Fold this protein.
Amino acid sequence: MSGFVLRPSAAADVPAIASIYAHHVREGLGSFEETPPSAEEVARRREAVLALGLPFTVAEAGGRVLGYAYAQPYRPRSAYRYSLEDSIYVARDFARRGIGQALLANLIAASAKLGYRQMVAVIGGSGNLASIRLHEKLGFARIGILPAVGFKHGGWVDSVLMQRALGEGAQSLPAGKPPQAASG
């Protein structure tokens, strides 16, 4: 799909972001949450991402938020400080139109520019082929599966782990200050 733009998210986008996410929580397996968070909670989560200097981007057309993506620390312990986890959600009526691919490509580039070295995708459901193929298309490799680690919609759900290098990845040691100050 053409005609959409990617831009940093704004506080005014929170109701649309919350609505998109609520659909995925209620209907899908991409999130292991079972109750959609309130708009206030979504705003808090967005602010936490931005407070770390990490990207939180929306795709917009005609004033409507069509999808969003953000990066967050993969894990809180300091040894993980160069690794991020991605999250991407697209409005159900705009799926499979290139929005997710544009959001993920932008997230990868922005995260590499910030000095991060690895990006991990934790995909809900081994049958979530759209997300798996999207990540494969953008250089992620399947690195593992956690069978039946979740229980949602009356059944057991796998988590598929995928990973890709950012920038030089593990080919060199990081120089200078780490991208984020992690604790633990």
Observations:
- The first strand starts at residue 5 and ends at 8.
- Strands lie at 5-8, 56-61, 64-73, 83-90, 118-124, 141-152, 155-165.
- Residues 82 and 94 are 32 Å apart (CA to CA).
